[in-house]
Amino acid sequence: MATGRPCTVCRSPDRDEIDVELIRTGGSSRSVSNRFRTVTRSAIERHKPHVPKGLTVLPAARDIARAESLAEKIRSLESDAARLREKAEKGGDFRAALAAIKVLADLVGLLHRVNTDRTATAREFLEGPEWARIEEALVRAIAPFPGASEAAGRALERLAEE
Questions:
Q1: Residue 124 CA neighbour count, 13 Å, CB half
Q2: What is the CB neighbour count within 10 angstroms for residue 132?
Q3: What is the CA radius of gyration of the chain?
């Protein structure tokens, strides 16, 4: 790659989010450029080699992100169905209310399956070799800094308490 102008995505205040979105979408420049209007599709294409390799070592991360996105969509549909059920009941349209209840039941089942899949994917990732490599790299990275291990340990303990 020629050393000309600096990468516009690397200089963007949205760089971290763009990098994560590139991983989540499997490298879809179109999808990312549609979401982040401050950078062009061609700039995102040129930026792809600059995405930190450490992010791409997470093959399960994309699956987890997709499951989270799907869960959000299901929750939105669930809210819509509940609203329509309430409106149907108030209007005395009990057939529509029953149909909305059926949709709600189906959505609850679907959400349960998505959450189960997401939990299994996360568990597989945390028990897999990728996480072990990341964990080792993080431990090596903070080893030269006195107190960093203790601070990280305290932070993790606080997370566990939440």
A1: 12
A2: 11
A3: 22
**DSSP sequence for 50-81:** GS-HHHHT-HHHHHHHHHHHHHHHHHHHHHHH
Q: Evaluate whether 131 touches 59 at the Cβ level (below 8 Å).
A: no
For the segment 25-78, what is each residue's pLDDT rounded down to a tens digit? 777 888 888 888 888 999 999 988 887 765 554 555 556 666 666 677 777 878
Number of other residues whose CB lies within 10 A of the CB of residue 44: 23
State the pTM of this model: 0.38
Kindly list the domain boundaries of the chain, sorted by start residue. Answer: 8-56, 59-161
pLDDT tens string 117-127: 777 777 787 78
Angle at 124 between CA 126 and CA 129, to 5 degrees: 60
Residues 6+ apart with CB under 8 A from 132: none
State the Cα–Cα distance between residues 18 and 109, nearest whole angstrom: 33
Judge whether 24 and 61 are in contact, CB under 8 Å. Answer: yes
